[in-house]
Amino acid sequence: MAETMDRNLALELVRVTEAAALMAGRWMGRGDKEAVDQAAVDAMRMVLDTIQMNGVVVIGEGQKDEAPMLYVGEEVGCADEPKVDIAVDPVDGTRLLAFGMPNSITVLSVAERGTMYASPDIMYMDKIAVGPDAAGQIDINDSVAANLDRIARAKGKGIGDLTVVILDRPRHETLIQQVREAGARIKMITDGDVAGAVMASMPGTGIDVMLGIGGAPEAVVAACALKCIGGDLQCKLWPRNDEERRIVQERNIDTDRVLGLDDLVSSDNVFFAATGITDGELLRGVHYAGDRATTQSIVMRSKSGTVRTVDATHQLSKLGQYAPFPFD
Predict the structure, then answer these.
(1) Cα–Cα distance measured from residue 270 to residue 168, given in angstroms and rounded to the nearest whole number
(2) In angstroms, rounded to a whole number, what is the distance separating the alpha carbons of residues 195 and 282?
(3) E-assigned strand segments in the chain
(4) Please, which residues bridge with residue 198 across strands?
(5) Burial of 250 (0-12, 13-18, 19+ CB in 10 A)
(6) pTM for this structure?
(7) Nearest to residue 35, comparing CAs of 88, 97, 106, 87?
(8) Distance CA 62, CA 201 (A)
(9) Any idea what the Cα angle at residue 82 is, between residues 81 and 86, rounded to 5°?
(10) CA atoms of 254 and 139, how far apart (whole Å)
(11) For residue 156, what pLDDT band results from cuts at 50, 70 and 90?
């Protein structure tokens, strides 16, 4: 793929996440998680098929029988080249959006074909994520206190100044206690695994590190962002039930193996785009005003290390002329 096209792909991807956010944002607070997800999927799918690429969905909405669109293995794009892997999370924080809560975003990652990690059978991972200033200072096999001490030193802070983002789940009861005993502050989130990892790696969010168990597909999406930013992420597969433990035993899966950024996405040419749907620490959400709406997005490219913030105003009636569904 030519270098100019390579650069242009990054900005093309923002159109995908903007469309998903504009459609899904209409469902904010209406309590219908299925409608939220379907609106984002429909818009994302439509715009993906206008992009000059040959993409295969590696991280998607499920298998073909489970998801009508953006299923794992689906081909998207309208060209023969470049051949790329696609990771999508049409709504990271579906419940957040359905109930009008902060930090729901729509995300999309692209990397060279065959470079994204897939874990079709084990759906959760234990994770630790930090930004560039603490990269190389984390060890998922070490204690929480030791990790927080190294992170604090790398950031020139005391442990008491750190804020750790953790999913609010019963499985994290011990982890929460360990963080409290170490002296760090905690921000609990009900959902939004990708946003949590990206917040931990971006300046200005007030978050220093993400800890805990979350989705394995979300780890791959987050890894794409952290690779662009220069952050660090370590994960280990975490079987969640007897069925997954049986699979681990039968297939001799090494759940002690530590997966780093290069294991989750081995390409050095990675793109990541995200658009806010509801307001949050990472991005401002969609705001509607008559025929216009505003969005805020970030788009990143690992090869150049560029991170752009894109503030856009959309005229909804004009967008509706080019889409099979109304944006207004």
Answers:
(1) 30
(2) 7
(3) 54-59, 75-76, 83-92, 105-112, 124-130, 163-167, 185-189, 209-215, 232-237, 270-276, 287-289, 292-301, 306-315
(4) none
(5) exposed
(6) 0.92
(7) 97
(8) 28
(9) 125
(10) 17
(11) very high
